[in-house]
């Protein structure tokens, strides 16, 4: 069993930056592909970014590519999402996810509880 806990959300003005963290307990995250998803108000949850176990390969949604960076520190059992040049449309609850497959899927094994990110215009 893996427990994921996100932190770092908050209110920021458009153009600003935030860094989300996802810490884990129960198991080492090095055994999992890790990802970030988000759910904007009134919409379905969507993929944001993912990083493979060794941290070399990453992938991003087109809407965040070039602005967001996903990284991981397996020694600290933590995954990060650096978000720059934030836009109001980035407003959402952001979720961390862990997938035992080699690649992040849309049905990962574990989810965090989510952290709210609000971007004001």
Highlighted features:
single chain; 121 residues; mainly beta; four-stranded antiparallel sheet
Walk me through the structure:
0% of the residues lie in helices and 50% in strands. By secondary structure, the protein is mainly beta. Strands 2, 4, 5, 6, 9, 10 and 11 form a seven-stranded mixed beta sheet that branches. The chain is globular and about 40 Å long. The model has no long low-confidence stretch (mean pLDDT 95).
Summed up:
The protein is mainly β and 121 residues long. It has no helices and 11 strands.
Strand content: over 45%
Q: How many angstroms separate the termini?
A: 40 Å
Overall outline = globular
> Level of helix content?
under 10%
Radius of gyration: 13 Å
User: How many helices in DSSP terms?
Assistant: 0
Average of the residue pLDDT scores: 95
Q: How would a textbook summarize the main sheet?
A: 7 strands, mixed
Number of strands: 11
Give the low-pLDDT segments.
none
Helix-strand category: mainly beta
Q: What does the secondary structure layout of this molecule look like, with pairings?
A:
Elements: E1 3-7, E2 10-13, E3 18-25, E4 33-39, E5 46-51, E6 58-60, E7 68-73, E8 78-83, E9 92-99, E10 110-111, E11 115-120
Parallel strand pairs: 2-11
Antiparallel strand pairs: 1-3, 3-8, 4-5, 4-9, 5-6, 7-8, 9-10, 9-11
